[in-house]
DNA sequence: TCTTTATGTAAAGTATACTTTACTTTTGAG
DNA sequence: CTCAAAAGTAAAGTATACTTTACATAAAGA
């Protein structure tokens, strides 16, 4: 799965730490998700979408390899 | 988190087993998610949205308790 | 250069998503 | 009522999301 978290953060001028705080997860969790190291829960995806004033589908994209 | 999976399945006249097969997870996984026993991954949420021709936000809803 | 801020990374531990097998209960058609 | 399909449940195991602590690196400004 791909994501546009970095871009959305840039739009809002927000650091990984800022986003982590707003979403109530650790900064490392945001970093890992942003780098595609793992897939967030749907709760976290929904929270990010809400924080960025957008939708889950505009942040996260299925790829061919996604089982 | 709440969800409307049962309703979406009904619209498409689809059993839990049907949905499980399309999403490539077990039937028990669908059952547990539908009953709110756990939160799916974002990949699974995106797949369900795609299967139901709708969006993640129309299937899954954050609640007050959601950390 | 020195310092600060943001990002990346790593390892160990905990919580939880998901699987498999198998059984029970509910529901609806006939 | 009966039978079959659908849904619910449970337990044990595996995979992975997420935390905490800690350190490394890069960029930018004083």
From TrEMBL, chains A, B:
InterPro entries annotated for this entry? Cro/C1-type_HTH (IPR001387), Lambda_DNA-bd_dom_sf (IPR010982)
Q: Name one Pfam family in it.
A: HTH_3
Entry annotated with the keyword DNA-binding: yes
Per UniProt, what is one GO molecular function of this protein? Answer: DNA binding
Q: Where is the HTH cro/C1-type domain?
A: 5-59
Q: What Gene3D superfamilies does its record include?
A: lambda repressor-like DNA-binding domains
Question: What keywords would UniProt list here?
Answer: DNA-binding
Do you know which PANTHER family this protein is assigned to?
A: DNA-BIDING PHAGE PROTEIN, TRACRIPTIONAL REGULATORY PROTEIN-RELATED-RELATED
This chain belongs to the protein called Putative transcriptional regulator
Q: Which organism is it from?
A: Chitinophaga arvensicola
């Amino acid at each position: 799965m791909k994501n546009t978290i970095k871009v959305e953060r840039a739009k809002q001028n927000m650091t990984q730490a800022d986003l982590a705080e707003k979403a109530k997860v650790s900064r490392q969790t945001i970093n890992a998700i942003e780098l595609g190291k793992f897939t967030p829960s749907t709760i976290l995806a929904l929270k990010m979408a809400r924080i960025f004033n957008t939708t889950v589908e505009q942040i996260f994209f299925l790829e061919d390899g996604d089982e």
